[in-house]
Amino acid sequence: MLSRLRKGLIYTDTDPDVLDHDDDLDAELYTYEKRQVYRGRYDPKYTKEDLDVHWLYDENSKRVGLVEYESADFSVSAVLWFYDNPYSTMFQEPGWKSEDKTLWSMLSNEAYQDCLEDDFKNVVERTLGGPYRLVFPSSVGKPYEYYECTKCGKKTLSLESNCSTVKKVAPSSYSVLFLDDSFVIYTPPNDSCVIKPKEPHGAYVQPEPVEAQEPPAHRPDQESLHQSEQTSLEPLERPATR
Q1: pTM value?
Q2: pLDDT by position in tens, the chain (length 242)
Q3: Distances (CA, A) of 16 to 10, 13, 19, 177
Q4: Which residue segment(s) compose the domain that 216 sits in?
Q5: 124-127, long-range: CB < 8 A, 24+ apart
Q6: Are 102 and 180 members of one domain?
């Protein structure tokens, strides 16, 4: 998930299981964006970002999102939710849709066999220099660049020791295929942050984190009593006061 408060920060742990630092927590029930959830302890992993980050849980002790606060000003905050597909979660855009087909449906039988022969380990490299860039959730926020041998023309994601004349290439114009880890294709909504405004069906831009327009939630200890009630949530210990 792209942070709304820190450019370049991506929350990559979106597994629904309870985190270790929230284990055995007597959680409190809070309301964020009209949704009632249980708030975990602050996550020390993000202290270096000057953020207080708390993961949010549902009544079944499953993580459903997070709330991030500016450590220096708790009135500045943003809430991020988990969705049912990786790109809606990443960009906080519910309109992303699976096309219910995979990359393999776009390949010839010969191209598919080539990928199969190397156990699908070099699929991205096989597309370098072509009209499409393959994007996975793990590659969001990373620059699109590769290396090309000026003699043999071989294109790779890393420097090749057996090529003596290699240049770095950073394409500026290309179309994108958004894939999950099973190579299923996803389509963004027309108003997605990844689409160039003047080219809604063509090229894509490197996404920037969306800035919070206004604090969507107060820090829990600032909430009024009617918005919070003490609740026992297994296996979630009462958060330490900060």
Answers
A1: 0.78
A2: 999 999 999 999 999 999 999 988 888 899 999 999 999 999 999 999 999 999 999 999 999 999 999 999 999 999 999 999 999 999 999 999 999 999 999 988 988 898 888 888 889 988 887 888 999 999 998 888 999 988 888 888 888 667 878 899 988 778 899 999 999 999 999 999 988 654 433 344 455 544 444 444 455 454 432 334 434 344 444 344 34
A3: 17, 9, 9, 27
A4: 20-91+210-230
A5: 124/157, 125/155, 125/156, 125/157
A6: yes
DSSP, res 48: G
Domain-embedded: residue 6: no
Question: Number of structural domains, the chain?
Answer: 2
* Coil, helix or strand at residue 2: strand
First to last CA, the chain: 25
216 inside domain: yes
The rounded distance, in Å, linking the Cα atoms of 52 and 87 is: 24
Calculate the alpha carbon distances from 164 to 102, 125, 126, 127, 160 in Å: 37, 19, 21, 22, 8
Residue the block writes with tokens 């389509």? 187
